Amino acid sequence: MTDLEEALALLAAPCIDERFFQRALKALALVTQCRWAAFARPSTLQGKIEVVAFCDLKQTIPGFEFDLKGSPCEAIYQMRYPNTHLLYASDLQQRFPDFKLIKDLGAVSYQGELILDDEGYPIGHILVMDPLPQRENTKSREFFRLLAQRIGVEYKRLLLSRELSVHKQMIASTHHMMSFVDLDYRYHVVSKGYEHLLNCNSSEIVGKHASEIHGKAVFDNYLKPLLDRSFAGESINTQTRIHPPSVSEPQYLNVHHNPHQDENGRINGVIVSAHNITELHKAKEESEYLAFHDSLTQLPNRLALFNHFADLLPNLSDTQAELAVLYLDLDDFKQINDNYNHLVGDQVLQRVAQILREACAEAEMVARIGGDEFIILHRFDAQDEDDKRQALTRLCLNLDQMLDEGIRHEGEHLRLAASIGYHWVEPAQKDVSALICLADKAMYRNKRRKRLNEARQ
Predict the structure, then answer these.
(1) What's the pLDDT score for residue 166?
(2) What is the rounded average pLDDT of the residues 73-84?
(3) CB-hemisphere CA count at 13 Å for 284?
């Protein structure tokens, strides 16, 4: 087998680890008939060059670093494509008398090739040195060029592999929620944070399809759409809801989905990192609930009423009145507070709220807008006007009867009563405040009429 055939055989072997670079450098040394060959790149230390792999045909030398300035490699990093090859045929010692490595090796000749990335920027170089003069020929120079390209590809592959390995180690060790999910929606690695969230060991998660862990409904509705977007190359930051079978209640997460590429630039999975915001979500829900609900009766408050009423109006019939606004005000509520106490008054308001919920279960909304005043929005679907008005009358009578049952306080029966006014929303009426005002006026008319009747009796 010739030197060239042996070199090609060395390069033909697949790259599975960092030993590829030693095989590649041995091939380069065989083709150029040089004793030493190296693959080096700029170090993370400013002004230094890091030797990633070094091949000596007679002995083993580990990787090392040296100063770029004053070295034979300095000129290579000043080159620009397509001039990326450099040869010092026989005068290496004279050109670089202060470079210790050359003296230690006894090298007299040097040949190097710059390695460029896809955008034309240098990522490293390969070189050979020998104690005898070198003569450049077409065969060796072409092999230099091809090898520089191959090493550039394999080094990028190695870096990506290291990056993924580091990511996996980081994911597995962190107490934050992190995982790596492949294109088949299977977990490759999960963090301790995921173990805690899902209440199981990583061995019960790794290798499993996401639907097996989270349930099919959660996977189909929440997880798969996000993963698919990341598989298509999108980095996503979103909030999502999950309810794995192993967890007692739904969990709310702030999630980052970051696509991960293999050495060929193809997406091979997604790195998922998440923060559990369930408690924050609960606090937000509670805050929103308090903003739109009365704290005593738990009924919607004035703000919720106005918002909902405004949303209803555009959707009402353009030809007939179908929504009634009922304004309910308790009679003599002040006397209850004065004769008993405000605690009893609060119990009365809570009982009234309970009655309204029961009697108006099919209403659009039952709200407390302040004090002893309540609003009911009730839609009546009957086409006949008389039927709708009769249904509204029955509702008011039912409320009167239920309120009359009252509450008991220390063995005493406290009867309750209310004045109710209503207004049918006509198609042309779109002002929420005006509509409530019309129902309020109707309520006060009924209250005055009731007081006059009571005075006559």
Answers:
(1) 55
(2) 86
(3) 6
Q: What per-residue confidence (pLDDT) applies to 244?
A: 72
Cα separation, 448 vs 287, in Å, equals: 40
Q: Which of 110, 68, 70, 104 is nearest to 88 (CA)?
A: 110
Burial call 22-35: b when 16+ CB within 10 Å, e when fewer: bbbbbbbbbbbebb
Q: Which CATH class is domain 174-281?
A: alpha beta
| Nearest by Cα to 101 from 65, 126, 138 | 65
Domain residue extents for the chain? 3-159, 174-281, 293-456
Q: CATH: 3.30.70.270, 1.10.3080.10, 3.40.605.10, 3.40.50.300. Which one for 293-456?
A: 3.30.70.270
Tokens of 336: 């209850």
Superfamily of chain region 3-159: GAF domain (3.30.450.40)
Q: Read off the pTM.
A: 0.50
Q: In what order do the strands lie in the sheet with 109-116?
A: 65-67, 48-56, 36-42, 122-130, 109-116, 85-88
- 81 vs 39, which has greater pLDDT? 39
The answer to whether residue 11 scores a pLDDT higher than 80 is: no
**Same fold for the domain at 3-159 and the one at 174-281?**
yes
